[in-house]
Amino acid sequence: MAREQLNSDAYNWHAFAERQDLAAALAGHVAGRLTAAIDERGTALLAVSGGTTPAKFFASLSSIPIAWNKVTVTLVDERCVPVSSPRSNAGLVAANLLQHAAAAARFVPLYQEAESVGNTSEADSRMLRSLPWPLDVVVLGMGTDGHTASFFPDADNLETLLDPSSERVVLPVHATSAGEPRLTLSLARIVRAGFVALHIEGEDKRTAFESAMASETRKPIRAVLDAAEKPVQVFWAP
Ligand SMILES: O=C(O)[C@H](O)[C@@H](O)[C@H](O)[C@H](O)COP(=O)(O)O
Known PANTHER family for this protein (predicted)? Predict the structure, then answer.
């Protein structure tokens, strides 16, 4: 059960005593929203983040028996590495989410072996444009630096990444703090989702989130909350 609920205009805060409780609750919310989308338009589009946080959530969601054959899963962002790399978000999703009932979902990755990240993002824009936009559900993570997706504060094209009026679907990211070149959905695509969840765990990230909400310096996570068409649902556990 949620331990506390702190709301504001831009977000609703759902806190859980245990990370497993959060995983089960978030999976239930996401499964419900995907089913509603399928009932409404015959299909559902889900974008998930990678990193070290989502594994429990992915495992919980993968076992929920919804009409996964009508769900398309893609990534919020990706490291430009082969799917066999331990750094690959596509590899993480394949191993943790696209299992059990969810194995029936269609998966559309972001990264393709290409000679340059710039070419990859052009190709991905063409490939991903054919998906059934807008996103029905997007699940974001966050770093303690206030980045979300691959909107890293030191990205060389941050203004472009955070442009809410961008027509782009996927953008390349070069940021020293990112570890390797990245591809990310544009903020414009993320904030139009029917349900935007932010999944964060640990005291450091709660402090970072609260600091980003209070700070005069606009961190990327704040740019997303400010532009989101509906309040972002923040799921947090210690
Ligand atoms: O590719 C990625 O790394 C993610 O999409 C990124 O935005 C992630 O959500 C945060 O960096 C938090 O990562 P952790 O879950 O590892 O803390």
Answer: 6-PHOSPHOGLUCONOLACTONASE
Q: How many domains does the chain have?
A: 1
Residue 82 and residue 120: Cα distance in Å, rounded?
13
Give burial (CB, 10 Å; 0-12/13-18/19+) of 77: buried
Q: What DSSP state is assigned to residue 164?
A: T
Q: What is the CATH number of the domain that holds 58?
A: 3.40.50.1360
The rounded Å distance from CA 40 to ligand 1 centre is 31
**Of all atoms in ligand 1, which is nearest to the CA of residue 149?**
7
Is the CB of 146 inside a 6 Å radius of any atom of ligand 1?
no
Whether 149 is in the pocket of ligand 1, judged by its Cβ within 6 Å, is yes
Nearest-5° angle of CA 8, CA 10, CA 12?
Answer: 55
- Residue 49 Cα: closest atom of ligand 1: 5
Question: Is 50 touching ligand 1 by the criterion CB < 6 Å?
Answer: yes
Q: Mean pLDDT throughout 141-168? A: 96
Cβ of 51 less than 6 Å from ligand 1: yes
47 token code pair: 């974008």
pTM: 0.95
| Structural domain span for residue 64 | 2-237
Spatial distance between the Cα atoms of 59 and 95, rounded to a whole number of angstroms: 9
Q: C-alpha angle with apex 4: 35 to 19, nearest 5 degrees?
A: 65
Q: Which of 34-43, 46-55, 178-187, 210-219 is least confident?
A: 210-219
